[in-house]
Amino acid sequence: MVAQPNGESSASLSSGLDHQSLERFHIWLRPLQQALALEADRGFVNVQGRQDTFHGFMSRELGAPPAGAFPPDCEERLQAFCHEFQSYPSLSDAARRRLVTTVRQWLHALRQRLEPTRPMAPPKLKVATRSTAAAANQQGDLSLDAPLSRVRGIGPKQAERLASLGLLVVRDLLLHYPRDYVDYSALRRIEALVPGETATIVATVRRCHGFTSPRNPNLSIIELQLQDPTGRIKVSRFLAGRRFSNPSYLHGQTRLYPNGATVAVSGLVKDGPYGRSFQDPLIEVMESPQAPLQSKRIGRLLPVYSLTEGLTADRFRSLVEATLPSIRLWPEPLPAQRRQARQLLHRHQAMTAIHRPESSEQLQQARHRLVFDEFLLLQLGLMQRRAALRQRTAPSLKITSDRDGLLSRFLNNLPFQFTNAQTRVLAEIDADLERSEPMARLVQGDVGSGKTVVAVAALLKAIQAGLQGAMMAPTEVLAEQHYRSLCQWLPPLHVTVELLTGSTPLKKRRRLLADVASGACKVLVGTHALLEDPVAFERLGLVVVDEQHRFGVRQRNRLLGKGLQPHLLTMTATPIPRTLALSLHGDLDVSQIDELPPGRTPIMTTMLAGSERDQAYSLIREEVEKGQRAYVVLPLVEESEKMDLRSAVDVHRQLEDEVFPDLKVGLLHGRLPSVDKQAVIQAFAKGETQVLVSTTVVEVGVDVPEASVMMIDHADRFGLAQLHQLRGRVGRGAAASRCLLINDSRNPLARQRLEVLVRSTDGFEIAEMDLRLRGPGQVLGTRQSGLPDLALASLADDGSVLEEAREEAADILRNDPDLIDHSVLRSLLDAQRNRVTSAAQLN
Ligand code: ADP
Ligand code: MG
467 in helix, strand or coil? Predict the structure, then answer.
């Protein structure tokens, strides 16, 4: 046991007390601390000692500190305390308590300051290394596909319970990774224990006794006093049940821990009125401090699995242990050369270590390898799909002569110039369209960045080449919005455009379908209705999908099936973080419109508490008086649409009757028939209503440049990306716009989330935060998002591993496109595809 003064502690030696002065200081301090502790224990009664009262003793001692033992800056404080103790008898109980506490803390701090702490090196502990070989001998070779009932120790009951977790064969159990670890690997000296931390100590038993709780005869307690060179700590073991209160049993228990024995203890450090303690920790009595430990848990990283009823954590751990030998049958998907180049653990090592880590470094490496594999398979799958798509031929949209000059006429007709970003993205799309392989491109751009005009330009290109275009939007409101935009631009160029949604009347629908089939209709705009079977195009050349993250891959493919092999352009105004984009659309090329058209004034965002709604209302009034308009948005949670509908109706009535009786207040919600929705939006656009109360249906597509206030009620209930999207409804005109987020939650996390929006207007940054705070499923906001099944990998944290895996996947496919030489990867991918297909059939 070597004391190791490190750099930090030698700096704190600077108080420079010599040994003798320190000794004098201790002699003075100890009785003071004892007196203070006693007074606190007795409830601040001003304890009467044999010779003195508490307050007399304190004021005398504090007034006469040992000479030379103190830094000069303490003098004043000591005198002040001394003074206060003189009037202690006249103080209230609370004031006494305060004074005693303050002085205790101050003396404690002083002691720490004067007494150089030399942290001791943590104890050493020999954790026995376990060989799988030994276990393998008992178990024999269990194949990865062996049913779990064949694992030693798993009976029919147990197997049934495991099946309820989806664990049927050995492979499943091995892939059932721990959801967390309890880290008992931090070895500490008693002095260095931190309450709330999980740690392991090695110490000597000073005292041990067992007793039955005086208040609860069913509870017995074994109490140990442990000591190491740096201090003491209490350890309690609680035994619940009357059978433990038998005195001879208790006595036997205490004999397990004889005085002077060395024990290793792992557990959570607690802080209580009597100092720090371990309660019900793991304890092992060791033959000697150097002897290796027998316990499989003390001093280790202990895996924690998600469990099912009737299976204890210990039991589950030992079941997993029993199957670990089968890991060596696991095929290694990566050739040694690739593995070494990336410094990846062998798959066997990684799988063993994830269940049974020897250290946190090893766990880190194991996790890295397994995450790498998950991403690698994902990327290989996406890249192969992309390659297959490329092999089909699409109509090349190369235009030899700009016959009708459609595109240039369109661009000339626009009242504005394309931004650099729009020009760049259009060029990227152009290049794709001229190839004979189908385009698969995602355009990401913040709200208002002008994606729609870019899409129109692409559609015109298809039409110029004699083909048709389709534009699909997730909601009717958005489809109608697009339709109106297109009607503004296309008919002047003699290009026909039609709208098809669920509410298109049957008669019109019939005519429309005929026009689409004959090619008379050049551009068809619509919702999911476009996916329905009766819709057949004459020659579909380009499909534009807006807000594509709301569509599943299957829906997308269904639409693609409608054309020869149309080009696909998808757009999203909800930028998603790169990791998510790569995982979901690794089969797409990505373009970014990362620039807003000039002349937009940034939106100012403010967070208000629910009690400050009135402020929001007066701001709305001010804006309306200036000729502007305002949205008031209420949350709409899918599952409780009815309830939210009522709240929108209620708020509408309240605003109309009480808050803005002199203004016109409109109401928009998803339950309105489409015609009524349009009427409400038109009234707001024309200024017939000045305030629009709405559910989130305004999220996409409503474009009213005069709207300059967006008030979002219960903003804490929305996702960040969605709030950002909503905020994008204002700031579309020249006027400076405001966004008011009403936070009704007391949850600090909700506040923290909303602050991201107050701070940032960058959709990418916001999406990253949303991913971090709420997870990918929430960011995408849909169940059929086609999110990959990742057991370990986190899209929020493992971005760099994803990039590595992506590189590796590209490299593998470059050399071996059909994975002939990578048979393990090939069969894993096949298995994955089969799973996806069978899942799809179930849906
Ligand atoms: P997004 O679909 O990306 O949210 P839109 O295409 O709806 O954006 O464009 C938002 C608004 O900006 C529209 O009114 C559009 O006409 C206009 N706009 C688009 N591009 C430009 C530009 N380069 N300069 C000025 N205004 C533009
Ligand atoms: Mg748009």
Answer: coil
